[in-house]
Design goal:
Mean pLDDT of chain B: 92
Shape of chain A: globular
Distance between the termini of chain B: 45 Å
Number of helices of chain A: 1
Number of domains of chain B: 1
Strand content of chain A: over 45%
Oligomer: heterodimer
CATH architecture of chain A: Sandwich
Largest sheet of chain A: 8 strands, antiparallel
Structural class of chain A: mainly beta
């Protein structure tokens, strides 16, 4: 015991304060709840998936009634196939089927690298009307080594069994024709069943690389 | 004291490091703040759930504590069909009367829409939803459907409302199911044209009650 007491003493400062090295880890992994006075942030990282020549990335857990809003972040999504469209769909059966009815809108601003054209336009070919197809998030993504698409998607109250499920997204892509395109889809999954899984993929070819993060945002 | 030291020693590893059993609870309930490295920066200030209310007002918590505030709207459902969801600000805080929600606003609004039957995909400036130095309530949406499964969800950012130097900028994005069965994201931005501190915000539908829905207010640290 004496040896331990001596070791313990080495973990105290000269003023008797316990040094960080005296704790058994920096994450305090034994803590299961935070005190009310600490007021932690309300956006929590739930999971992170990194693609590596993946045909799709699916989030089949963690999307439930715990949070009112779920946010996905797409970081440097890189397609194996040039000009592929990055898309998503939702499941109401835990990921067995991704075919929930969507009505959506889609508009975009664009600018060519060679400055030859700019524009702000509705993109009618990229929206859906009561369709069970995958919803585009950004399209025409170049697969040059340094080209990727990045953005975010908010999904509101997916566990509701009363309301349709609203989504809002904002993404920027580096198009296969060397264009920056800010692509802004929005819409709703026209179902009163709880959405409990979300899948992302490119319209053709694998997700060569990229990271998708899922956050939960609490209102309580 | 010897027994206490012996007990304490049992909670210390050979290298003198406390094990988790050395701490008297799992919630550390005397902690009043979290270290920067682990603490999120979006702090919930207040959340309110509507149930047949004419308005929902936030009359506290909007001050100089945070520079940026964000309201999140989850499935706001109107009692009346085809009604705009709106907001206004007050400089009178908890003492705000109905007439105090009348600060001068200049704003812009645009929207996209697309009907469930596939018709009329459109992106347009929405002159019916902007204001020009007006004290009216600022629309955040076009006409929301009151079908049982229809609603609007989204967010409103309010910047530096406590400033007594600058106007108060706001930016909002909401998606609604329009009364005509269409997807309708609405993008609104503008400013309260006042150098008085805005310290209360009220939400309502243009007519009829807020049948249901949750509005949460966060401060961005």
């Amino acid at each position: 015991m004496g040896a331990r007491i001596r070791s313990l003493a080495n973990n105290f400062s000269s003023t008797g304060k316990l040094l960080a090295g005296g704790m058994n880890n920096a994450s305090l992994s034994g803590i299961t709840a935070l005190p009310s006075g600490a007021s932690p942030g309300k956006m929590r990282l739930l999971s992170t998936q990194t693609a590596s020549s993946s045909s799709s990335i699916s989030f089949t857990s963690g999307i439930d009634s715990t949070y009112d809003i779920y946010k996905f972040e797409f970081i440097n999504m890189h397609p194996a196939t040039d000009g592929a469209n990055f898309q998503f769909q939702c499941s109401t059966d835990g990921g067995s089927n991704y075919n929930t009815t969507v009505t959506s809108t889609y508009f975009q601003a664009f600018h060519f690298e060679n400055d030859s054209a700019t524009g702000l336009e509705y993109a009618a070919a990229k929206d859906l009307a009561q369709s069970t197809s995958f919803q585009n998030l950004f399209t025409g993504q170049g697969n040059d080594n340094d080209h990727t698409g990045t953005g975010e998607l908010f999904l509101f109250d997916p566990s509701s069994t009363t309301f349709v499920k609203h989504f809002l997204s904002n993404n920027n892509s580096s198009d296969a024709s060397d264009i920056t395109i800010n692509q802004i889809p929005a819409g709703y999954f026209n179902t009163t069943s709880a959405v409990n899984a979300v899948q992302f993929k490119f319209s053709s070819g694998n997700i060569d690389a990229g990271t998708i993060k899922l956050y939960g945002i609490s209102t309580s | 004291m010897g027994s206490i030291i012996r007990s304490a020693a049992n909670n210390v590893g050979a290298s003198g490091v406390f094990s988790s059993s050395a701490f008297n609870n799992a919630s550390l309930n005397s902690v009043t703040s979290l270290p920067t490295a682990v603490d999120g920066k979006m702090k919930l200030i207040l959340s309110t759930t509507a149930s047949g209310n004419t308005t929902r007002s936030f009359t506290s918590g909007i001050d100089s504590t945070y520079r940026t505030y964000v309201f999140k709207f989850i499935n706001i459902h109107p009692a009346s069909d085809d009604v705009q969801f709106q907001f206004q600000g007050s400089t009178q805080g908890a003492s705000s009367s109905d007439s105090d929600y009348a600060n001068t606003i200049t704003s812009n609004s645009f929207k996209a829409f697309h009907y469930e039957n596939g018709s009329s995909p459109t992106l347009e400036y929405d002159t019916g939803r902007d204001l020009a130095n007006s004290t009216s309530f600022q629309p955040l949406t076009d006409g929301v459907s009151n079908d049982n499964d229809h609603s609007t969800s989204g967010e409103l950012w309010l910047f530096n409302p406590s400033s007594t130097t600058y106007v108060k900028n706001f930016i909002s994005t909401l998606h609604l199911v329009h009364a005509s069965d269409r997807s309708n994201p609405q993008y609104t931005a503008g400013y309260f044209n006042t150098t008085s501190a805005i310290n209360a915000i009220r939400f309502k539908f243009a007519s009829g009650n807020i049948d249901s829905g949750t509005i949460a207010l966060y401060g961005i640290a």
